[in-house]
Specification:
Shape: globular
Largest sheet: 3 strands, antiparallel
Order of helices and strands: HEEEHHHHHEEEEHE
Strand content: 15-25%
Number of strands: 8
Bound molecules: FE2/S2 (inorganic) cluster
Structural class: alpha+beta
Radius of gyration: 18 Å
Number of domains: 2
Helix content: 25-40%
């Protein structure tokens, strides 16, 4: 059977570059796709002065296109400034790979989104966000859509794990519809706190469970 992939896609899929995790990254993001239930994590180390990406790694639970795109996107981003890396598009990644089947477009978007979200995470943590907007419940919900429910591979909003979200002064309270002894309670809590406490005007994030 011949696969609808270019030789370069197959080569990057078989020998992906920059696979893994960076401990204590300067920026990180996990992006998921509702279309296929897959996830991509991107970790970056950024030089404080030059703002260049010194190191970048990714982990993928996606398909061959997704792995190949993660590989090429991290190669393209390494050594670039964060502003240059933000401009890497899925089209550029797909072109570098010699094309991707149209049905696999969302897979390459996922890897590019992961890179942009990791850069955004770095900028938020370092007070580098330009047009700062006051946090709203809508912004919080948008962020929660990037927290994945590991059981289904879909986000915690779509899978109804979030019972209620409150925003009081500079504090966010997220009440989850799972008990505190749920097998993923702690990792979900960590993920939610990490995503929300990066918001520039938030001082505290509390995650509560049903019991
Ligand atoms: Fe899910 Fe490609 S990442 S089908």
């Amino acid at each position: 059977m011949s696969l609808p992939y270019s030789e370069k896609v197959i080569e990057h899929f078989k020998h992906p570059r920059n696979v893994g995790k960076i401990d204590n990254p300067d920026g990180k993001a996990i992006e998921g796709s509702a279309a296929c239930g897959d996830m991509v994590a991107v970790y970056i180390k950024v030089d404080k002065d030059s703002k260049r990406i010194e190191n970048i790694k990714f982990q993928s639970y996606g398909c061959a296109s997704n792995i190949a795109t993660g590989s090429i996107v991290t190669e393209l981003a390494k050594g670039k400034t964060i502003d240059e890396a933000k401009d890497i598009s899925w089209q550029q990644a797909a072109d570098e790979l010699g094309g991707l089947p149209p049905i696999k477009q969302h897979c390459s978007v996922l890897a590019v989104d992961g890179l942009r979200a990791a850069i955004n995470n770095y900028e938020e943590k370092n007070g580098l966000i330009k047009n700062k907007k006051a946090t709203t419940i809508e912004i919080i919900n948008k962020r929660l859509k990037h927290v994945m429910n590991p059981i289904t591979g879909l986000d915690v909003v779509k899978t109804n794990l979030i019972k209620k979200v409150e925003l009081i002064n500079k504090e966010i309270i997220v009440i989850m519809d799972i008990p505190s002894n749920h097998q993923f309670a702690n990792s979900l809590k960590e993920d939610i706190v990490e995503k929300l406490e990066a918001l520039w005007d938030i001082e505290r994030v509390k995650v509560e469970f049903t019991e």
